[in-house]
Amino acid sequence: MRSSEVSGAGALGFRVGQRDQRQSRRPQKPSASAWHFSRTTAAVAGTAFLAASLFVAYDAIQALVGFQQQIQFLAERAKDESLLALASADPLLGGRAEASLAGGSTPTVAWNAEPDAALAGIAGRGAAAFALAGLLTLATSRRRRDGMPDPARRENYMQLAAAIPMGLACWTGTGQLIVCNDQYRRRLNLEDTRLTYHQAVGRLIAGGYMKLIREDDNLRILELHCEDGTCLQIDERPLGDGDFMTLVSDITETKRTDALLSAIRDEQRLLARRYHEEKLKAEAASRAKTNFLAHLSHDIRTPLNHIIGFADLMQHQTYGPLGDDRYTDYIHTIKSSGEHLLASFGAILDLTELENGTKPLRNDPVLLDEVLAAVTQRFLGQAQRAGIALDVGPLTGAVLRGDRLALIRMVGNIMDNAMRFTRPGGRVTLAGFAAEDGVVIEISDTGVGMSEERLATLSQPFALGDATFTREGAGPGLGISIARAIAELSGGRMAIDSSPALGTTVAISLPTDPAAAGLIAA
To answer: Where is coiled-coil annotated (predicted)?
Structure first.
């Protein structure tokens, strides 16, 4: 709802906004359609005019019967054939009759017919009957005042308004209120229904503003933002004969929800953009770190190789005795420390190459049983010296696609962790389980285990939390990281389950290649 200049609801109804301004200011004259005849009025009119018609017919028949009786009476009195012939003439043709008896003994009998006067009497009585029928019809009909519909139509509007769960009001083309429901009355604080459309607009828009959302020939939707912060949706639709209805619904919560969702979407876009930026920064930092470690490993491995080589020469006293036995112990320490550093930097270089993809893995057919056998052979002596039982599962016959040396290193890193953290008398199990779509390599131990906090750090390189953390000292924490990288590059994944004092189980799933089994058999 809005003012008549904007909303188009003026004297001419719903589409007055499309009329000429001069035409909209002209006074409206009652038209023929201002008279409304209901079904009851039509029934009364039909009955009245039918009765008038029957009355006219009855009157004409009675007049004709009266003429015939007079003719018959004269014919019986005349006794004269000429007078009888004259009397039998049609009185409605305008003739005159006179009769007299012969001999002059009987008084003269005369009859004068005035058909014009008789017809005029019939016409007058018929006109009076029809006029009475017309008055009766007009008495039962009601003229629409100010375009107001008849009571039956108002009753339909009232039923419609009562069934609508939102504020509804029906208006005439001149802006007069026809009917409204309780919700509309509460919204406008109405006590009487003698309200015009413009007065309703004034009450609704007081202290607020209105915005047009959509408008066409059969629909007009507006938003009314009230002074108290509420938002109403005004929906105007035509009803026919210039009438229209107004639907008022409170959409304050909907607008608040939309605003909240819009704010959340904006925040999500901002967070996504920040996440993308931070991800790019993290990836760039990771690449920079990896490149730095790779260069550092190369730069340090060269002098370490020299140190280890010279220490080996001095340990074997290639160029003569050293002169003191303590030098032999010092050289042994220098050599072992150098070898430890060399292995650590070698692991760093391998991890950086695996993460960067600069060290591609081979894609050859590999027997899983050969991989497990090679790892078992490597750690069998160590297990016997440490008093640890090493159990090996049955053969699987599975064939993988991958790099044989990388797979052996992957399983070896996990086995090395299990052996280091299992006390004497404990048990380490290495087994493979084959299925149609892949294999699972499982390494279990009864070692010290790990807590959930420490287990969560195993996916982070250099966290010093994986099982390369030895009893004698701390390694760089890359054993599990390298094994995980090899598993993922081979198309598999690795899962770890551990509990303190119960042990650790590492499961590595890898896909199989049935076609590669034929190559192995050949």
So the answer is: none
pLDDT for 328 beyond 80? yes
Contact (CB, 8 A) for 404 and 366:
yes
DSSP for 152-169? HHHHHHHHHHHH-SSEEE
What pLDDT is attached to residue 93? 39
Q: Which residue has the tokens 């200049």?
A: 5
CATH number of 360-521: 3.30.565.10
Q: Are strands 427-434 and 389-392 parallel, antiparallel or unpaired?
A: parallel
Rounded to whole angstroms, the Cα distance separating 458 from 482 reads: 11
Q: Residue 144 gets which letter from DSSP?
A: P
| Phi, psi torsion values for 237, nearest 5 degrees | -140, 145
Neighbours of 287 (CB within 10 A): 13
Supply the DSSP string of 364-398, one letter for each residue: EEEEHHHHHHHHHHHHHHHHHHHT-EEEEPPP---
- 4-18+146-250 classified as CATH 1.10.3470: no
Cα 313 from Cα 315, distance rounded (Å)? 5
Tally of CB atoms within 10 A around 90:
11
Rounded Cα gap, residues 182 and 161, in angstroms = 9
Q: Tell me the pTM.
A: 0.46
> ∠ CA(289), CA(296), CA(277), 5° rounding?
10
Alpha-helical segments (H) within 98-248: 115-140, 151-163, 182-188, 197-205
Report the relative pairing of strands 97-99 and 209-216 from DSSP bridges. Answer: unpaired
For residue range 411-443, what is the model confidence (pLDDT) as tens digits?
999 999 899 999 999 999 999 999 878 999 999
Cα(326)–Cα(465) distance, integer angstroms: 36
Query: CA-to-CA distance for 237 and 245, rounded, in angstroms?
Result: 6
CA dihedral defined by 322, 327, 330, 336, rounded to 10 degrees?
A: 40
Distance CA 221, CA 237 (A): 9
